[in-house]
Specification:
The protein contains ten helices and two strands. Helices cover 66% and strands 3% of the residues. It has a two-stranded antiparallel sheet with strand order 1-2. It starts with 9 loop residues before the first helix and ends with a helix. The protein is mainly alpha-helical.
């Protein structure tokens, strides 16, 4: 397995993201190159599948390119967290499709020409993909992470409050007053339970994201 370049420091990454959003193509390329270790890190989770690491990294690289092309600094999430989700989604789509990608995938090799006769690479194709489709995949994964955190870190009473308050598992969403009546407790106590449960969910999800993205 090849050795990838060192990741950018936090300051270098921010400067690179700012240049990229200003339209600098070289910054985009640098961001891809210096995040290949993140691709390898995510790919390792699936190395016991029917695909070898080269295939997983090749497909994960496509997810990284999608992340670079759709990430916006004003959304608040860290780039590594966002990119890790995109990389993992791309690998999971491959595994679910049960089809092998070519080991000779080159992200920059021309795969056709545009209407002006200019060569078009896989990277160019990634830029043209629907951002809405990618955001739908990210949203689906966020929902899975929420349910996973719900099972792991909440006590039974906290689960009941969150489930009824936000209409999880097919239930209708209820007011704090309605929940208080169901559980036989005060509305203010429901409010305290809800606040504490949401804090625990947020911390658990952030912990999971850190593990997924790797320590930078």
């Amino acid at each position: 397995m090849k050795t990838f370049p060192k990741p950018l420091s936090a300051g270098e990454e921010r400067a690179c993201l700012e240049r990229m959003e200003a339209g600098e193509e070289a910054a985009k390329t640098l961001l891809i190159e210096r995040n290949m270790r993140l691709v390898a890190h995510v790919a390792k989770k699936y190395q016991n599948s029917d695909y070898d690491m080269e295939e997983l990294v090749s497909v994960g690289s496509i997810g990284l390119i999608k992340a670079v092309n759709t990430y916006r600094m004003d959304r608040g999430s860290r780039f590594a967290t966002y990119a890790a989700k995109c990389i993992e989604n791309e690998i999971l789509m491959m595994l679910r499709s049960n089809k092998k990608y070519s080991r000779e995938v080159s992200l920059y090799e021309p795969i056709g020409v545009d209407k002006d006769g200019e060569a078009v690479s896989l990277v160019d194709m990634m830029e043209a993909e629907s951002r809405e489709m990618l955001e739908d995949m990210i949203r689906d994964q966020d929902i899975r992470e929420l349910y996973g955190a719900y099972d792991i870190c909440l006590k039974e009473q906290e689960k009941a409050v969150v489930r009824m308050r936000y209409g999880l598992f097919g239930e209708r969403a209820r007011t704090q007053r309605e929940i208080a009546a169901v559980l036989g407790i005060s509305r203010s106590y429901v409010s305290r339970i809800e606040k504490k449960a949401l804090k625990k969910l947020r911390e658990q999800i952030e912990k999971n994201e850190s593990l997924s993205a790797g320590r930078r």
